[in-house]
Amino acid sequence: MKELVVATRNQGKLLEIRTMLTGLVASVRCAGDFTEFPDTVEDGVTFEENALKKAREAASFFGLPALADDSGLVVDVLEGRPGVYSARFAGEGAGDAANNAKLLSELAGIPPEAKKAAFVCVLAFVTPEGAEHVFTGRVGGRILDTARGEGGFGYDPLFLVDGYGQTMAELGVDDKNRISHRGQAFRLFREYLQKRCDTP
């Protein structure tokens, strides 16, 4: 593929995506590089709805194939919350500490075995012609009562990964990238490009 636009203003995420797509996409551009591109109102009730909305708007605006993702934490006993509100669980503009505190407050008194959760990432790819493809990654675990680990961000220090005995914040970078919800989704997207698209 010659050119792809990513519907994000996060330069760190853009760098990560460029690395993941090396050899498959000649030029990866960022929607945030263009001040005239409006922010998408993420009003969907699912990760898929939000990811598709962002990708559709970017594909239409730029006339290029577009990629967008939406991700977050889902907790079974909270009926899937915080879900699409993961980044603003404690309110608009809330930081990691506030979101984690709210999560622990809502789970207070619940037995450890009942705190099953998962990180989910949905990646949407949309072309200007209207073709749409969705790729989903999911990693299971449970929520701890106290934070562990210095790495990662968001809910990572509270999320004990199934089968690892470590939180997402305790895992090394290589292990985290290999098992993470975002890593899974991008591997599926790479496989799709390798099968369906011309390499540059």
- The percentage helix is 25-40%
Total domain count: 1
Mean pLDDT: 90
Query: Would you identify the CATH architecture?
Result: Alpha-Beta Complex
CATH fold-level assignment? Maf protein
Low-confidence segments:
none
Approximate shape: globular
Strand content: 15-25%
* Class computed from helices, strands and strand pairing: alpha/beta
Put simply, the count of helices is: 5
Radius of gyration: 17 Å
Largest sheet: 6 strands, mixed
Features of this protein?
globular; 200 residues; Maf protein; 6 strands; 5 helices
Describe the model.
This protein has helices at residues 11-20, 47-62, 96-106, 173-179, 181-196, and strands spanning 3-6, 27-30, 66-75, 116-126, 132-143, 159-161. The chain is 30% helix and 22% strand. The chain is of the alpha/beta class and 200 residues long. The mean pLDDT is 90. It has a single domain, classed as Maf protein, CATH 3.90.950. Strands 2-1-3-4-5-6 form a six-stranded mixed β-sheet.
Task: Give a nutshell description of this structure.
This protein has 200 residues and is an alpha/beta fold. Helix content is 30%, strand content 22%. A 6-stranded mixed sheet has the order 2-1-3-4-5-6.
Structural topology:
Elements: E1 3-6, H1 11-20, E2 27-30, H2 47-62, E3 66-75, H3 96-106, E4 116-126, E5 132-143, E6 159-161, H4 173-179, H5 181-196
Parallel strand pairs: 1-2, 1-3
Antiparallel strand pairs: 3-4, 4-5, 5-6
Helix pairs in contact: 4-5
